[in-house]
Structures are given as C-alpha cells and as structure tokens.
What does this fold into?
Amino acid sequence: MTFSEYIDGRWREGQGDAAVSRDKAHGTEIWAGHWSTPVAVDQAVTAARRAFNDWSRRSLESRLEFLERYTAILQRDQDKRALDLARETGKPLWECRQELGAMIAKLAVSLESYQARTGFSAFELPDSNARLHFKAHGVMVVIGPFNMPGHLPNGHIIPALLAGNTVVFKPAELTPWAGIWLCQALEEAGLPPGVLNLVPGERAVGEALVQHPDINAVLFTGSYATGRAIHQALAGRLEVLCALELGGNNPLIVSSFTDLDTAVITVLESAFVSAGQRCTCARRLILPEFELADAFLERLLERTRALQCGFYTDDPEPYLGPLISTPAARLALAAQEHLERVGGQILLPLTLERGHPALLRPGIIDVSTAAPVPDEEVFAPLLQIIRVPDFAAALAVANQTRFGLAAGLLSTDPAEFALFRQRANAGVVNWNRKLTGASSKLPFGGVGHSGNHWPAGAFAADYCAWPMSCLEAADLQQPAALPPGLGPWP
It folds into this structure.
C-alpha cells in the first residue's frame, strides 16, 4: 500500500481522489496514492491540538534535540533527496543540491533568530521585576509551494516547531512527494505523534485547513491570487495569524557597470534561474540611456541564446529545466503573445524545446512602447525590457507595480543606490548582486501585493511566538501613598 497522509504519528492512505506525481523531465511515475479529504484535515488538526500542550511545555533544548536529529538525517540523505527534488520539480541537480543545503542550514539560523528575537529578557523596576516571555500560538497550518518544495515549507516548519507550535502541513499538489519525504525525516527523528501532520491534496484540502475552527495560524507561500483568497477566508477571525509570502513583478535597473560580462551574468541569474520560477526573479529589466546600454542588451541576447536548457539527467548539466507543468508553460507562452499584441517587440522568443511540453527556452521582449502592459507575475523565463531616458525615469518605472517583493540595481554609483534604496517599494533590495540572492540571516518578504507584513527568513520567529509581558513580585506591597478616594481605611 502507498501511504500519503501522516496523522497523529501514523502513515495511512488518503481517502480522496487518486493522485500521482511524475518526473517532470521524463514523465515516469515518482509516487502514486490518494489525496486527503476534509475529514482527514479535521483529524490532523485534532491530533495537532492534542499534541500541543506537551510539545509547547517542553524545554527549548528538548525540542531542539528532535530537530537536530532531523537535520542530521537530511545531511545523511542529501544526495538522494536532491535527486528526488530534481525529478519532481524538473530543476537541475546542481540547484537541488543547493536547496538541500539550505534546508540543512535552516535549523542553526532559526535557532539564532529565535533566541535573538524571542528570547527571555528581564529588568528590575522600583517595585517589581519586568519580564518578557514568549509563547507558542498553537496549531499552525503550513501550505507550501512547488518551486522550492523542500526549503520553503521547511523555512516555516522548523521555526514553528522550535517555538513550540504543532503543525499541519499541506505540500503543493504538484510536488507531494517532497512533502512526504520531509515528514518521513521528521518521523525518523522521533518527533512525537501529532506534532507534525501531513495532508496532501488540492484546493478542497487547503480550504478545509484554512476554514478549520481550531487552527491558530496559516503560513502560506505562493501566488497572490491564492494568498488573497486565504486572507479573505480568514476575514474577521482575529484569533488566526495569517503570514503570506507572495510573488512579485520585480524590477532590475542596469545603469552602469565595470565589466560587461559580469553584468550580463548577474541579469541571467536574476531572471532565468529555476526557469524563472522564483518569486524574486527579475521580470522587468529597466535600461536608462547610457553609453553601453545597446552593447549590454546585445550581449544579454547573445548569452541568453547560449543558455543550456534541458533535463537533470543531461551531461553536462543544464542551467535551467522545464517548467513545473504543461499548463504553466502554456500560460507563459500566452503571456508572451499578449505582450506582443499590445505592442511588445520580441527580441528573443520564448519557445518550447526538444519536443517537451514544458521545457522553454528563455525569451526577452521589449515592452518600452507597449500599452497597457499587465502588472502581473509571469512565473517563467520571460524577461521584459523597458528602455527609459534616464535614471529618474528608471526609478519611477521600477515602482509602477502593485507588488513589492524584490528590486535591484546594477550601478557603479553609490549615490544612485542611496536614492534607489530610499525610493524602492520592496522588501528585498539588492545592489550589484543578483536579484534572486537573499540571506537567511535577514528577513524575507514584501510589501503591497507581495505579502502582509509578516516576513519570513530571520523574522519567522516573530510569527511563531507571541509576547507575554509580566510585572512580577514575590509578595504584595501597599503603595506608599493611596490615591484620592481610595483611603484612608477605618
């Protein structure tokens, strides 16, 4: 029997529709089973609630022991799990190894952040001791994405468990196997029953989780449309924390550089890593007029044509693999067609490769004179070029988006970056670094339609525990002077 659910410490078969996960490069079956149901969701939340008191009352050191064993298991199995990620996502092996490395490093970073941001603190007042404690919320729902189905859910689950919460996890329906082996590793680490529960499924499972009356938080990474639906579903439920990590229509300005090829490589890594399926990928390349602007664009086109597109089994390894699904590729091609219809000039067409329905060769389209250009995240290797007269115009165009996740500048002028950082409406702002680069020791999140002010990364500790402020004294003390109307006593 193939198991798909993990509830209250037991693996079992789901009772929903049949489900399968296939190798995104070759179409072979990776996993087959059945989705969970709303009934299973209720059982999972009940198990998590039942486990919460014991788990949250353990010492931090006790919880840490389980997570250290989990991290050691990931370290032991990293080659196997990197291959699992490559098969299920279609990403090259080199990139999946990086993802496993980020998962392995997460515990140390989360512990440092938890202790720094939610550690116990105390100070003395004239008549009492002031103490700040932090407490776990309770049952946290984690809904993961497909593009980094190991690292991104792990980035919620580890801080949540470390803080004393219990978790019900729904992996992305396009990458269920990643959720299963992640839970297998935590089970092998000896995590007590009910502390982590897995309910794979499609929309009905997600809706049942978000609408469940006994949850305390929803942590979601994914599209704006789904994030907004979750936010609306929780409207009026003040007791449920909602942390949304959404997408972006990210600008990257190139105004000057010392080395042409280095600038081009930085743009390629910003736009086309993960086949453009990262929320921080550059979507809009803004080029103010400068001496080397035309030469830069020509070299960018040349190097983009030379990018290796292929499968994780190729030798040598490609830079990018297929999109997550055939429908995703169709949406990307449709977006290119729409941009061309509204006046965009295709400089390098986004095209299917090697007869594969989702392997796309990156495209570049000049939309400088197109109108109206949709302010949408195209989750694919399609880069829009916008030519503008000067740096001031570039700044204005960069902020012409309802999103606010990432923004970048390639420039040799520190004054330009000082102005850019001051004006940019984005949570991640990089100077002379790829836009897809971020530090786990910094917060990660956006403004506008890119999130709801609960950044992840180093600030995940903030949404995994709530503060309790205490004034404490060992005995009662009568005030030196009673306020008017309260005394004296007869």
